[in-house]
Specification:
With 252 residues, the protein is mostly helical. It is 76% helix and 2% strand. A two-stranded antiparallel sheet has the order 1-2. It starts with a helix and ends in a 6-residue tail after the last helix.
Amino acid sequence: MTTALAVAMLLVLLRVAGFVVFLPPFGGSTIPTPVKIGLAMALSVMWGIKAVPTLALTLNPEITGNWMLLIWLSIRETLFGVSLGWLLGLVLVPIRVTGAYIVQEMGLTMAAVTSATEQSESNVLSQILEVAAILFLFGASLDHQFLRLLDATFTSFPLGRSWNLPSQDWVVNSLAETSSLGLAIAAPVGVVLFAGMVATMIVMRQAPHFNLFTFGAPIRLVLGMLALIWFLPSILTGMAQNLKTFTSFSGL
């Protein structure tokens, strides 16, 4: 019985640890490793109290005596937790696409800074929107929805047993819609900047001495700032809807 309890707790720990490693914003490189370990241990204890006693009673005796089977189950639980955390991490991708597109159209791509949750470089607007999204994530208690999804996996995909995997269409759709959602959020500002660029080119056509690079860049910057301020409520609303959409997976 002691061995079964230890195996059950190990499987719970591996699933939760893999989930925490990629869960935004805790999956970023800016979060200290001891914080990740402490969070994974705390969540494992919470779910372990709930799931381990029942799992230990129903666990296949072959698992505790077969090291190869135990290794396979450990790898499976780790990959499952990592995959779920990575899928939930897509919640921030449309927001980064929004900021990157607007910054590119405004001509501010040279202003690169370090991202708040990623090791790679980002831009100023993407970082601001990303921080705003994370604050909204905690303010609207959507982080609790992440934990509810993880809790639902213990019922839909029980530890140490075979799984009936649902349709993968929802995963493919989530991957395909990340870029389109980001562009849809940035569309109002993009339309204004495109119209400003067309008007600038028409003026340049009529007045050849009008230098596009000399006067066009400040005009794009001013138009982008004004459009960003004007459509900021629309952008924030689109970000909020995107967060709510990504935290309600139909596959679980």
